[in-house]
Every structure is written in C-alpha cells, then in structure tokens.
Design goal:
The protein is of the alpha/beta class and about 375 residues long. The protein folds into two domains: about 10-180, Rossmann fold (3-Layer(aba) Sandwich); about 185-370, Dehydroquinate synthase-like - alpha domain (Dehydroquinate synthase-like, alpha domain, Up-down Bundle). Helices cover about 45% and strands about 10% of the residues. The protein contains 15 helices and eight strands. The strands form two sheets. The chain has a six-stranded parallel β-sheet, with helices on both faces. Helix 4 (about 70-85) packs across helix 5, helix 7 (about 210-230) packs antiparallel against helix 8 (about 235-255) and helix 10 packs antiparallel against helix 12. The protein starts with 9 loop residues before the first strand and ends in a 6-residue tail after the last helix.
C-alpha cells in the first residue's frame, strides 16, 4: 500500500509578511541564525531591507557565497561558518539555489559529515535539520515548500538531489515585496518552473486530493498572472499570485514529478536555467503523457484555459516563446554530447517513479532528438 503524504511549512503570505520574521524565529527558539544568501541579493539591497525585521541585525551572521548553479562547495563553506559561529538556525533569503543550499546547511547543522554524504546518496540516514526559515525572492522553484534540494558536485557535473521530509522548511514567508525587483526574463523562467512543478505534481500517480487541488490552483494562477508579471514587474497583484503559484509548485513536488524533469535534469550539465529546461521538458513530453492520463490532462487543460483537444505541449511552447524563452533544446543552444546517453540518463531518472507515463530509453531518445532539431515545434 502506498501512503501519500503532504508536508507543508508554516506559511505566512502577504505584502509586508517579513515583519513577522523576528517572532517566527523566537517561536522556533532561534537566537543566533545564519543568513544564507548570494552576493546579488546583497547588492540588490534585499538583505538591508530584511534588517528591520530582525531587531539586532548587527549580530546577524551572513553567508553570501551561494553560486547561481549551487555547488557542494557552497554548502560545505556555509556549514563551516554555521559551526564556527555557533549558530542555532538558518534563514534563507533568495531563489531556489539559495534555499537549496540553506536546506543542506541546516541539515549539516545537526548531522555529521559533508554534503557529499547526503546529496545524491539514496536513503542516507539523517536526523531533523536545524530550524529553517525561508524568504523566497523569486517565484518559481517552490523550494520554500518542497522536500527536495538539488546541487552540483562541481561546475561541470549534472545536479544530484536529496529528498526528505526533514528538508521542508519550518516556516515560509511569502512576501511579494521581495520579488518586485526580479528581472523580467528571470520572472518568465521561474514562472515556467512553477508551472512545470504544478503540472507534473498533479499528474503524479500518488493519490493526494489536497495536493491535486493545490496543484491545479497553481496552474490557473500561472495562466492568469505570468504574462502580467513579465509585462509589468511592479504589478503587485501578479507578483503575489506568482509567488503563491510557486509555493503550490513546491508542495506539488512532494507528490512526484515526471519525464519533463527527467529531461531537464539530464540536460543540466551546461549551466542553463532549470526553469527553462523544465519548460522544454514539458513541451517535449506533455502530449505523450496525455495519452496515459487523459482525465487528469483534461482537468489541467481547463485550468490552463485551453480548448478541449488542444495540444498542451504546443500551448506551453507558445507561452514560452511569447515570454521570450526558448521552447526547444535547439532554440536554447544546447549541445548534446550524445542523444543516447541523455535518453538513458532520463530513463534511469527517479522522476519517472510516480509518472503516469514512464518512457523507454528509445522514447526518450525520440523526444530529445525532436527537441534538438532546428525546426522543432515550428
């Protein structure tokens, strides 16, 4: 018997919600937190914007060494500072890369060893992490609500993951004011990332009615608000809706993902944005998946505003191109070392486990090859 579970953080959602940070830390018993962020967040003034919510901001320990595509070395450096400064909790301020690093820093705060002992190691035993509060500054990865984290062992190696209910943050503070400065192309890419999580989580074979409702709501919010958020980055209503959709996507991840993410992970070796890769994966796989889950696909199409019988893959491709994003591997400029090797990696991916369609290596090769053709989807 498969028991489907849904683990969510305590969630605060409103413009200005960050003002509750100090109280939330007190409830968790955290008096000496480590702030995990990146240099771009610091330069954008968001750490300074956070300071009034902390009270004694001068005593805050800051680790800003997270790289764009996070590395094992980022986590180990952050964990070393956490131990050196005798911290008792972690705050994450940033996008998915920052939050994923913060999750593993929190894990190493209460567990021995280095990140390589856990990430990419199936069933690695570990205790609960140090208390973690996350404040996302992008609206896409959903890491603020998911049980997962992904990291690269080094700058040229595809990412590896870790999945554990202990990685769901204790508190997620969803304050759209912290996403207003997000560049528009990144707004588009992270929005597609949120959409991919909601779609594949909803399609999961796990029976989780609450999760399915949340996932469908996330799809509908992306359909209504992503174009607006990209067209006008100061649109507070659209920013808030996309932040909520991203959180819905993070919850959806807990139900399982699918072949779109298997392709995205397999092609994560060249530094391209994960949200764009996930969208390209949707374009490549959704029509094939539709034949294996027609009822759910009809519900998704309705949530997304598609006419009955419309191609979901074509609709996602059209949206991505409208937003200025590539919709195929060819448009992205991805240089495939070997279609067969990519297909085999996608076929072996753990993302297939709860997918309604688990493509063979040959089927993956066909989809990847089609996406690599210069005329793909045109």
């Amino acid at each position: 018997m498969m028991i489907a579970t849904l683990t969510v953080p305590r969630t605060l959602f409103a413009a200005g919600a960050v003002s509750a940070l100090r109280g939330e830390l007190a409830l968790l018993g955290v008096s000496r937190p480590l702030l995990v962020t990146d240099k771009g967040i610091v330069a954008a003034g968001l750490v300074a914007k956070l300071a009034p919510a902390l009270g004694d901001a001068a005593a805050l320990m800051i680790f800003d060494g997270v790289t764009e595509n996070p590395l094992f070395a980022d986590v180990d450096a952050g964990a070393a500072l956490y131990a050196q400064q005798r911290c008792d909790g972690v705050i994450a301020l940033g996008g998915g890369s920052v939050i994923d690093v913060a999750k593993l820093v929190a894990l190493l705060g209460t567990n021995p060893g280095s990140v390589g002992d856990y990430a990419g190691v199936p069933n690695a035993a570990h205790r609960a992490t140090a208390p973690l509060v996350v404040i996302p500054t992008t609206a896409g990865t959903g890491s603020e609500a998911s049980p997962s984290a992904g990291l690269h062992p080094d700058a040229t190696t595809p990412s590896v993951g870790i999945n554990s209910p202990h990685l769901v943050p204790a508190v997620a503070i969803l304050d759209p004011d912290f996403t207003l400065g997000l560049p528009l192309q990144l707004t588009a890419a992270t929005g597609i990332d949120a959409l991919s999580h909601c779609i594949e989580g909803y399609l999961s074979t796990k029976d989780q009615p609450f999760g399915e409702l949340i996932a469908l709501d996330g799809v509908a919010r992306v359909a209504r608000h992503l174009r607006r958020a990209v067209a006008d980055g100061s649109d507070g209503e659209a920013r808030a809706a996309m932040l909520f959709a991203a959180c819905a996507g993070g919850i959806s991840i807990g139900m399982g993902l699918g072949p779109a993410h298997a392709i995205a992970l397999s092609c994560s070796d060249q530094g391209f944005h994960h949200g764009i890769l996930s969208g390209i994966g949707l374009v490549a796989t959704l029509d094939g998946t539709a034949a294996h889950a027609p009822g759910k696909m009809a519900a998704l199409a309705a949530a997304f505003g598609l006419a009955p019988g419309a191609s979901p893959g074509s609709a996602i491709a059209a949206l991505m191109r409208e937003l200025g994003l590539p919709a195929t591997l060819a448009e992205l400029g991805y240089a495939a070392p070997s279609v067969e090797a990519l297909a085999e990696a996608a076929h072996r991916s753990h993302f297939n486990r709860f997918a309604p369609w688990q493509p063979s290596a040959a089927e993956y090769a066909g989809m990847i090859a089609a996406s690599l053709r210069s005329d793909a989807g045109r």
